[in-house]
Amino acid sequence: MKIILHRLLRGRLSLKVYVFIISFIVLCGYILPHYKFYPIAPVTVAPAVNSHTRVTKHLSKLVTLVFRQFEEFENDVAESVASFVGAYPNMQILILNQSPQYPPYQFSTSNNTLRNVKIVSLDLKLDSSPNELKPLSHISTEYVLFVPDSTRVTRRVLQQLLLAATSAPTQGTAVGVGGSRLVCQQVKWNFVDWTLQYSKDASGKICDAVQGQHAVIFKTSILHTLPDPFLFPFPESLYLQTAVRKIKIQIIDGKFSSGRSVLKTPISKQKASRRQREYRIALYKQLGVKAVVRDDGRVQWYGCKRETQRCFPPVQGTPSYILSGRNIPPCCRRNIRRTAAHVLRALLQAGARCWLETTSLLGAVVRGDLLPWAEYAEIGIHSADLPRVSWLQRGGADNDGFVWERATKGHYYRVAYSATNRVYVLILPFTPKNGTMWPADWVMAHQREFSERHLHPLAQIQFAGRQAPAPNDARAFLDLKLGANSLERCQKIGPKLIYP
After folding, report:
1. Kind and range of the H or E run holding 328
2. Strands 249-258 and 172-177
3. What is the maximal distance between C-alpha atoms in the chain?
4. Distance CA 497, CA 500 (A)
5. Which tops the pLDDT comparison, 415 or 447?
6. Could you give the 3-state DSSP secondary structure of residue 445?
7. Average pLDDT, the chain
8. Which of 240, 247, 39, 215 is nearest to 144 (CA)?
9. CA angle, 29 as apex, 23 and 30 as ends, to 5°?
10. Cα-Cα-Cα-Cα dihedral of 269, 274, 276, 281, to 10°?
């Protein structure tokens, strides 16, 4: 054997031996794979059925895609639709227009490849059925994905998005589009004070609202609980509705691609910005939002101004906002502050003896400001000093636009913020008689006479950001006017102290 191996390596064997050896090797190579030296019983593993398998296999049946966030006069909706149809031909796609689309989209829904694309116009038609004007009636899937204009789908990101949504079905799930930077915001809606406040969330993942170009997915059942999830401006109005219901939005990593840029000209940008502002004003008017505090601390006012009427109707007994469970609108309170500061400055410059009266004094003691529900400010004045103030004698609009006028019934005065905006400050003259200050020929429910000693000397108190003259014993003065323990009762029952 040793000799044969040596000859094999040296190549000195005959041709027949070489043929035999090669045939033997080929035969072994065929037989050995079929022979089981150690037979093992096969193990059958049942395929795991989890949410990931369900998501990837039935994604088109789970989700309806909705386009709501775009400008009808200039958009990239056609190409965005084509991107999703190309990736998911069976996915339901809904395009919601505020009015009949013009110019029309560059595609036809009669095309067989676009058989699942539906265009719905939400403008009112007299022959429309109720369901035609309800976008949710066109949605039959378990989830709704809102996608902004100029978006291109990425399969992996969409699967990741839906997987996150199925893992947290009571929340919304957002993902960025293109190079946009998403800002996570917390929203506080103060119904009583007519104020909406935004603040940045340092965690950046669980939010009340999301700012920046993004897509967001919700379970359809959540949208059915909202008053109007498709209201403009979108998605701002959607997040206001979910925030009130404590429905959070989680932001996941990853991004959809962006499509072609739109609104490239200054004219189109201005038009889009103007429309957004119009939608926002209409929304805030509908909700009764008068002030919005942005996450950078800026305050945007949507209530009354000097050139507009005040935010509540003429008062007959109890103000309308109190009956609605609210305080006076913050814009009106701000305008009353301005008027009160102007009046106090004018009276003091004229040398008149004046002081904060009942409700304004109460607000100064409790809050250092007007009471949150006060419909006006009250300032008392010594009747002997009325001739000193020229505007009380002649009346009319002064150089700053404030309107001075005498009441038609009763010997008292009021100063309005402007001729149009009639929030005002009352100036109430008191006449001394035998050491007592008496109302000078006028009657108000919570006003009554008081001892002259409360004005000798006058004190100073913080009021609406400045020092104002006040009676020297504010608590005793208020208890005399409003009854015992007026401060405690005010903090406990609020406006019922004045409007029982």
Report:
1. none
2. parallel
3. 151
4. 6
5. 415
6. coil
7. 88
8. 215
9. 95
10. 160
Burial class (CB in 10 A: 0-12, 13-18, 19+), 270: exposed
| Cα 7 to Cα 4: distance, rounded to the nearest angstrom | 5
- On the 0-12 / 13-18 / 19+ scale of CB atoms within 10 A, 63 is buried
* Token representation of residue 375: 């419909």
The token pair that represents 318 in the structure block: 């109890």
Amino acid type, 281: I
pLDDT in tens, 360-408: 999 999 999 999 999 999 999 999 999 999 999 999 999 999 999 998 7
Q: Cα separation of 393 and 346, whole Å? A: 13
Q: Which helix (H) or strand (E) holds 279?
A: helix 266-287
* Separation CA 220–CA 331 (nearest Å): 38
Instruction: Using the structure block, give the residue that is written with the tokens 């059958």.
Output: 44
Residue 470 burial class via C-beta count within 10 angstroms: exposed 0-12, middle 13-18, buried 19 and up: buried
**Cα–chain-centroid distance for residue 350?**
47
Check: pTM over 0.85? Answer yes or no. Answer: no
Specify the pLDDT at position 473.
Answer: 93
Q: What end-to-end distance do the CA atoms of the chain give, in Å?
A: 122
* Whole-angstrom distance, CA of residue 48 vs CA of residue 50: 6
Domains of the chain, earliest start first:
53-182+204-258 (3.90.550.10), 324-497 (3.30.460)
At 330-343, the pLDDT tens digits run 999 999 999 999 99
Q: For residues 431-464, b (16+ Cβ closer than 10 Å) or e, as one string? A: eeeeeebebbebeeeebeebeeebbeebbebebb
> Which residue type sits at 108?
S
